[in-house]
Fold this protein.
Amino acid sequence: MTDQSFSVMTSRKSNEHYTPASVLEPVYEFFGKVDLDPCSNSLTHPNVHCQQAYTIEKDGLSQRWEATNAFINPPFSDTSKWVCKAILEHETTGIEILFLAKAAVDTRWGQLLLDYPHCHWTGRVKFIKKGNKDRPAPFPSTLYYLGKDWRKFTRIFSQYGVVQPGTLLFQRLIRLEKTSFFR
């Protein structure tokens, strides 16, 4: 990998990094169909097959996400804004979201997402980029799940990496265990 391609993927110089089929196939298995991609590359030839898409021109951050589910692979330059929007939409509407991001637990947005079930993807994702064919990202990726069916999430995504329940779910399970234990 050249220094230039490494710097583009680790910096914010390029937002064009499309999700490969190796990640999308289990996403489609999980949702059946993706209703919304608010970070789509194209309305006519989208990378993610979905019912509704917002491109940079339609600005998915400013739209209401009227869907039952969404897949998000956000632009690297705006990850924190997309995390806040995803959490807001999930918490207010109940939309189920699969959110693919750089594993960055040292960031505020990364710490917010740790509240939700997540899969630390095994190996480096080979994002689809011009001039970067078949090269893995120089960083690990995590798929976060904002939704209620954590058992299904675990069943499907444990084949692709280490799945953890997230702190909110873990705290709920501990509370349930304590109430059952002391009865």
In short: Residues 1-12 have pLDDT under 50 and may be disordered. The domain at 3-181 is CATH 3.40.50 (Rossmann fold). Residues 81 and 178 are 37 Å apart (CA to CA). DSSP finds six helices and seven strands in the chain.
